[in-house]
Amino acid sequence: DSGVTQTPKHLITATGQRVTLRCSPRSGDLSVYWYQQSLDQGLQFLIQYYNGEERAKGNILERFSAQQFPDLHSELNLSSLELGDSALYFCASSVARAVSTDTQYFGPGTRLTVL
Amino acid sequence: AQSVTQPDIHITVSEGASLELRCNYSYGATPYLFWYVQSPGQGLQLLLKYFSGDTLVQGIKGFEAEFKRSQSSFNLRKPSVHWSDAAEYFCAVGILQGAQKLVFGQGTRLTINP
């Protein structure tokens, strides 16, 4: 158990809908990262927040957005969903703020299925 | 562009046999390299990482990896695998210049034969 929690575990929705994925980092970690894992794209870094501020941005679509709240939990919002958005979405956390060098602790993921 | 290549999509080894998983990276600067493992239904867990210094890095669960700059490689090894090592293994490189991020390879799925 990494200490990172993600809810929900599974999510099934329809095209065009909007969903919110939630992540609680390990106690004491200030950075939260979001990743998408799909069969065709592999594991891709989406975005990082550090202590409430956006820190680094990866291959995140404009239809997707994220935020980190004062209690350090984070939410990833996916809107206008398409079939291709079906994937496993991971959250990770770390103590410091360097996405490139920090040891990241991953949650169990949220599996999103868009029908 | 920065990239990580794991040439083997799937590897099968017998329990007790030695293991080597290959990883090649493409990055112009000094690389920060990682190996993560993903067990079925789980998130990723860090096995080991290399930043600088000794090019042979020891990790958890008896794994080690060797950084070879001349070959742009960071191969993962274990002298004797256990059935519990069956999982997916990901190599990653940390990008520090420009848009910082962690770039993962496509992964290698390891199956252990009893």
Question: In words, what does this structure look like?
Answer:
The complex is a heterodimer of chains A (115) and B (114). Chain A contains no helices and 11 strands. Chain A has strands at residues 5-7, 10-13, 19-24, 31-38, 42-50, 53-57, 64-68, 74-78, 87-94, 105-106, 110-114. In chain A, the strands form 2 sheets. In chain A, strands 2, 4, 5, 6, 9, 10 and 11 form a 7-stranded mixed β-sheet that branches. Chain A is mainly beta and 115 residues long. With 114 residues, chain B is mainly β. In chain B, strands 2, 5, 6, 10, 11 and 12 form a 6-stranded mixed β-sheet that branches. A 4-stranded antiparallel β-sheet of chain B has the order 3-9-8-7, with no helix packed on it. Chain B is globular and about 45 Å long. Classes of the chains: A mainly beta (115), B mainly beta (114). Chains A and B meet through β5 and β10 of A and β6, β10 and β11 of B.
Summarize the structure in short.
The complex is a heterodimer of chains A (115) and B (114). Chain A is mostly beta strands and 115 residues long.
User: What is the helix content of chain A?
Assistant: under 10%
Order of helices and strands of chain A: EEEEEEEEEEE
Terminal CA distance of chain B: 41 Å
Query: Structural class given helices, strands, pairing of chain A?
Result: mainly beta
Count all strands of chain A and give the number. 11
Give the % helix of chain B: under 10%
Total number of strands of chain B: 12
What is the strand content of chain B? over 45%
The radius of gyration over CA of chain B amounts to 14 Å
Name the poorly predicted regions of chain B: none
Averaged pLDDT of chain A, please?
A: 94
- Bin the strand percentage of chain A: over 45%
Number of alpha- plus pi-helical segments of chain A: 0
Low-confidence stretches of chain A: none
Major sheet of chain A: 7 strands, mixed
Rg of chain A, rounded, reads 13 Å
One letter per element, helices H and strands E, the order of chain B comes to: EEEEEEEEEEEE
The general outline of chain A is globular
End-to-end Cα distance of chain A: 31 Å
